[in-house]
Specification:
Elements lengths: L3 H4 L10 E2 L3 H4 L1 H6 L18 H9 L20 H10 L6 H10 L2 E6 L5 H11 L7 E6 L2 H14 L8 E5 L2 E3 L6 E5 H7 L9 E6 L7 H17 L2 E4 L3 E4 L7 E6 L5 H6 L4 E5 L6 E5 L7 H15 L4 E5 L3 H16 L7 E7 L19 E7 L2 H4 L6 E6 L2 E8 L7 E8 L2 H9 L7 E5 L3 H6 L14 H9 L15 H13 L11 H8 L4 H13 L2 H12 L12 H8 L8 H18 L2 H10 L4 H21 L12 H10 L4 E4 L5 E3 L5 E4 L12 E9 L3 E8 L3 H12 L1
Parallel strand pairs: 2-10, 2-11, 3-6, 3-7, 4-6, 7-10, 12-19, 13-15, 13-16, 14-15, 16-19, 22-24
Antiparallel strand pairs: 1-12, 4-5, 8-9, 17-18, 20-21, 20-23, 21-22, 23-24
Helix pairs in contact: 7-8, 9-10, 12-13, 17-18, 17-19, 19-20, 20-21, 20-26, 21-23, 21-25
Bound molecules: cytidine-5'-diphosphate and magnesium ion.
């Protein structure tokens, strides 16, 4: 065998994977995870919807309802309408359809639990629509991730045999497809929270389905808190002495359905006093779990070797690899492609399919297409594939045991920052990941960590509200006349992080000393941007450079990175980009790129533009996305009466001044030792190697963000006059 990877497999033979019992359900952890909610009412014994107690029984037996034929690989977007209807009727949830509709009709709030792939997200909205339960209103289905919202909407449109954007649509930040006839709308939780600002009762929605509630994302928590008050108002529920809660007549009542892939429903049930809890039995085949006998230092390399071990030694079946983020996905995809091309001809081909949250709509559709003959699909995904999206055909899972987690390091002085760190997953995630191998038949899960490491993992993740920056949410709540301190939340954030977000908003001028929202704050909240950037846009009206600031902020808000990094071609990259470099730093460098691209776009064809981007190591997708974002920001400007065409021409100062207003908290001063000290806050930082100012000794800087690897780096850096620091941040804080 000539393949290098084959010479050093991670495990020499199958036995060297420390084979454990199918611990997916058999070990003690599973029991802890599936604690039976106390307030459960099961359905009738014949029903296929089961109470969690029964559910546990069926899970322990490790077999799905074997009578049900699996739709398998045929379940793709390209299927014909008839086939699709057949697939729909074979989903585990279909047998409980009538019972579900009955329960939804009778209850204002339902908590629906069920294993991934049982059909909750795609079917429940259609049942509501087809049974007339949604009345004339819209059914909202919320998702914590953009890519889940867009791809599920596409799937349901196909199932309904309609064009995406007609009766089935979606709405995610900077991208939407819906029309006045839309009845089922998949949307990110952030978008529906934003809608509260213009319609605090969400009156156009007759049903709000909060999906993936177990993830407890920040926006989902805010939505759930608001739904509780909205239900009271729209369903006319009053506390009557001696009688408890009494429901009066309501002209536009709301139904809420909370859906989750894990079984800890108790908390949701308690929060929505008296919610009905239902369980839909999924389909789960046995999964053999293998733990590596020792910890892996390089999980990307370990995943690659394990993949080829499966590919050469195991029968056909697709492989799903869980990785923490886009960078690892891209690098592993490249390596797998290189090595698989060197395999002898008698081997199956390998088709790689990346899947991560920031992918543009439609970019991942090949993942759902049937695997071509004589080919093994290798899906490289983040935790998006854990519960949000079910990919058919997976028989093998490789679990690196890592994920990326956002965590805010709050500082009392207001100088805190968000970190995005790679960390160990939780036991709950590990079990979900393993479960993905057993949906269509017996499967295998290769954990690149030891059994002891698994046991040492936290049981489940901490809700995001307890570990993330709250300033953007607090600003939105203030617009609604609400406050984090008084809102009835499922979990309260830490005091110091609330305090820190108040300081941030005060320094940006969005709140006054009485913590009341200012007119600047209201304008800021109207932009779908982080407060630092919406503040910069508003400042740009003072300095006459709205056009330039919108150009920069649009690129910074795109999900793809503008600059393609290539460690092998570092010199070529730096030479190709030389002409965009601006002495003031990264922000104006971005502006130079945008301007150059706009010029090219006028004269070049599509392929010419593409080639130009390739030559300059620029990611055209980021530029195209930024164009869309800018269009939307311009619309917001128009609504606020801001002229977005105002330009400062070739002048640099106004742009830097405007950005300085937004990044007032992100200023740092050069120290004698070459490090930078935050003007507000205590952190000592270095300029990130990717910055144009990296090796310059600039006395004072502003930066977009701090990233924490082995030390704290400032990324997206521009030079500012030292006097700025006095004008903005510190003086204000002291005054
Ligand atoms: O929400 P839950 O995990 O219970 O299941 P679902 O997302 O409604 O998925 C039901 C079925 O639809 C699964 O078999 C998926 O593979 C399939 N599906 C698909 O084929 N293509 C999509 N874009 C989305 C779902
Ligand atoms: Mg789902």
């Amino acid at each position: 065998m000539s393949v290098a990877v084959k010479q050093s497999p991670l495990f020499n033979d199958r036995k060297s994977f420390k084979r454990s019992r199918p611990s997916w359900v058999d070990d003690g952890n599973e029991d802890r995870r599936q604690k039976t909610p106390s307030k459960v009412t099961g359905l009738s014994p014949n029903s296929h919807l089961k109470s969690p107690k029964k559910a546990r029984k069926s899970l322990n037996g490790f077999t799905g309802p074997s009578k049900i034929e699996d739709s398998g690989r045929a379940s793709v977007n390209v299927s014909k309408p008839l086939q699709i209807q057949e697939q729909r009727s074979k989903l585990p949830i279909a047998k409980g359809k009538e019972a579900l509709i009955r329960e939804f009709r009778e209850n204002d709030v339902t908590v629906l639990l069920g294993e991934t792939g049982s059909g909750k997200t795609t079917q429940v909205p259609q049942y509501l629509l087809e049974s007339g339960l949604a009345g004339d209103g819209i059914i909202a289905v919320t998702q914590p991730r953009k890519v889940a919202a867009t791809s599920l909407a596409a799937r349901v449109a196909t199932e309904q045999n309609v064009n995406l954007g007609s009766s089935v649509g979606y709405s995610v930040r900077f991208d939407e497809r819906f029309s006045p006839e839309t009845r089922i709308k998949y949307m990110t939780d952030g978008m529906i929270v934003r809608e509260l600002m213009s319609d605090s009762l969400l009156s156009k929605y007759s049903v709000v389905i909060v999906d993936e509630a177990h993830e407890r994302s920040l926006r989902t928590d805010l939505l759930i808190a608001n739904l509780k008050t909205i239900l009271r108002q729209r369903n006319n529920i009053q506390d009557v002495k001696g009688k408890g809660k009494v429901k009066g007549n309501a002209s536009n009542p709301l139904k809420v359905i909370i859906m989750s892939a894990t079984l800890d429903a108790e908390k949701f049930g308690l929060f929505f006093e008296g919610a009905k809890i239902l369980y839909v039995q999924g389909r789960q085949h046995p999964v053999k779990i293998y733990h590596s006998s020792q910890g892996q230092v390089d999980y990307v390399d370990a995943a690659m070797r394990t993949f080829f071990q499966i590919h050469t030694d195991y029968p056909p079946g697709d492989v799903l690899i869980f990785l923490p983020g886009q960078e690892d996905i891209e690098s592993l995809e490249k390596t797998i492609q290189i090595y698989s091309n060197q395999l002898p001809h008698d081997h199956m081909l390998v088709l790689t399919c990346p899947m991560y949250a920031s992918q543009a709509a439609g970019q991942n559709s090949k993942v759902f297409h049937p695997t071509p003959p004589n080919t093994r699909k290798c899906i490289l995904a983040t935790n998006i594939a854990e519960t949000s999206i079910t990919i058919p055909g997976v028989k093998y899972v490789i679990d690196t045991g890592k994920c990326k987690e956002k965590r805010y390091l709050a500082r009392n002085t207001g100088g805190g920052f968000d970190t995005l760190l790679i960390r160990d997953i939780t036991q709950s995630s590990a079990m979900q990941r393993a479960g993905r191998a057993g949906r269509e038949g017996a499967g295998h899960c290769f954990r690149l960590y030891t059994e002891d490491a698994f046991k040492a993992m936290a049981l489940s993740a901490e809700p995001e509200i307890m570990r993330c920056s709250l300033s953007s949410s607090l600003l939105q709540l203030k617009c609604l006349g609400q406050d984090l301190e008084t809102l009835d939340l499922m979990d309260q954030p830490a005091d110091e992080s609330m305090k820190s977000s108040l300081i941030v908003l005060f320094l940006l001028g969005a709140l006054d000393r009485e913590k009341e929202i200012t007119s600047v704050g209201r304008q800021m909240a109207a932009f779908p941007l982080e407060p630092v950037y919406s503040r910069a846009v508003i400042a740009s009206t003072e300095y006459g450079c709205t056009q330039e600031v919108l150009d920069i902020v649009s690129v910074l808000s795109a999900s793809s990175k503008l600059f393609v990094e290539s460690s092998e071609q570092r010199d070529a990259v730096s030479e190709a980009r030389q002409k965009f470099r601006h002495v003031c730093g990264d922000h104006l460098t971005i502006l130079n790129v945008v301007k150059a691209y706009q010029e090219i776009a006028q004269s070049e064809s599509k392929s010419g533009r593409k080639e130009w981007c390739r030559r300059h190591f620029l990611n055209e997708r980021a530029l195209l996305e930024a164009n869309d974002i800018r269009d939307q920001l311009r619309q917001t400007c128009q609504r606020l009466g801001i002229d977005h065409r105002v330009s400062c021409g070739e002048k640099d100062d106004p742009v830097i001044q405007s950005l300085g207003h937004g990044l007032a908290l992100n200023m740092a001063l050069l120290q004698p030792d070459g490090f930078y000290k935050q003007a507000i806050g205590q952190s000592v930082v270095k300029i990130h190697p990717s910055s144009t100012l990296c090796d310059k000794k600039t006395p004072a800087i502003i930066y977009d963000e701090l990233v924490y690897t082995n030390q704290i780096y400032a990324r997206g850096v521009s030079k500012i006059p030292k006097s700025f620091i006095l004008t903005f941040g510190t003086l204000k804080l002291q005054s």
